[in-house]
Amino acid sequence: MKEVSKYKDCFVCGDRNQTGLRAKFYVQDDGSVVSELLADERFQGYKDILHGGILAAMLDEVMIKAVLAKGVFAVTAEMAVKFKRPGKIGQKIKFTGKIVDENRRIIRTVGSAVNEEGQEVATAKATYLEAKGYLRSTLTASAE
To answer: Under a CB-based contact definition with an 8 Å cutoff, are residues 139 and 94 in contact?
Structure first.
């Protein structure tokens, strides 16, 4: 699997962000993107439970990485997350994102987070808008 490009200072995937998650994202043969995150105690919401914001951030990132893996620079326009069960601190959670529809500059995706027992922790749907003009040049200059 090939690693998807990243912005070095990104909270989720940046290698240079000392307080970030430093997650790595890989594109699979079918175009979907995967990542794993060890639910570290630094990211607790309640005792022994991964904060929902970290789950949402990882879902956003894995879905937009599916868009980026196609060479399209985009920004999040809308996202909905459905939390199904707590993510447990100390467990690895696998994230998967894929494109389900493309219409001009609008790209729709789905994502999922699955715990070590194979249970869905959360699912998401998002809409991304392909960046144009100044925003596109800013995003492309930031990518590694």
So the answer is: no
Structurally, how many domains does the chain consist of?
1
| pTM more than 0.85 | yes
Q: Is 23 exposed, middle or buried (0-12, 13-18, 19+ CB in 10 A)?
A: buried
CATH of the domain at 43: 3.10.129.10
Question: What are residue 94's phi and psi, to 5 degrees?
Answer: -100, 130
**H or E stretch covering 128:** strand 120-130
Q: Where are the alpha helices (DSSP H) in the chain?
A: 52-68, 133-142
pLDDT > 90? residue 33: yes
Bridge partners (DSSP) of residue 74 are: 130
Spatial separation of the C-alpha atoms in residues 94 and 113, rounded to whole Å: 6
More reliable by pLDDT, 131 or 35: 35
Domain of 73 in residue numbering reads as 2-142
